[in-house]
Design brief:
By secondary structure, this protein is of the alpha+beta class. 18% of the residues lie in helices and 47% in strands. The protein contains two helices and eleven strands.
């Protein structure tokens, strides 16, 4: 319980930081630093990849899913004012996905992941985000990946925040 509370506090801190940073960015610069794009998540068991980038930083979401029909999802990518943090969120805005995911991987290029989480259900209609169990996925230096045999095939949201190499110069 304490670990879950700690994770939520860290997540809320990162989200506050990103909202605070994004509110300081002038409108003209904001368009260059953030982007939200709609894409279709397609069932059929075939591996698909969707990618977006801001400047030198890129987020790729690779997945395979089964059941149902196409679902509309969103990907948001953003770069902090000082170019030190890059964030990527992929989610189904309608809440819970009805597709069964056989695999997923998010990859952030040009960063080292400092925070990530994946969810089986997204907040909406009085519901809150429901995180996957920690054993269902692995967070690496630049990827967030399902764990074979432990992932329960439900994914509705994935968020990752990476520190750019910009601050190492």
């Amino acid at each position: 319980m304490a670990a879950e509370l700690t994770c939520r506090v860290v997540a809320m801190t990162w989200m506050f930081l990103l909202v605070s940073v994004s509110s300081l960015v002038p409108a003209a610069a904001s368009a260059e630093r953030t982007k939200t794009v709609e894409f279709n998540v397609k069932p059929g068991g075939v591996v698909h990849t969707f990618t977006e980038r801001v400047r030198d930083y890129e987020c790729s979401f690779t997945y395979a899913s089964q059941g149902g029909t196409n679902e509309q999802w969103l990907m948001s990518v953003g770069l902090s004012d000082e170019d030190t943090l890059f964030s990527c969120s992929v989610w189904r805005p309608q809440g819970k996905s009805y597709l069964f995911f056989t695999q997923f991987k998010a990859e952030l290029k040009g960063t080292k992941i400092e925070y990530a989480n994946a969810y089986s259900q997204t907040a909406g209609a009085g519901q809150s985000d429901v995180p996957l169990r920690p054993e269902e996925f692995t967070i690496g230096d630049s990827t967030v990946t399902h764990n074979d045999g432990k992932f329960n095939a439900q994914l509705s949201k994935l968020t990752a925040i990476g520190r750019t190499r910009h601050d190492e110069l």
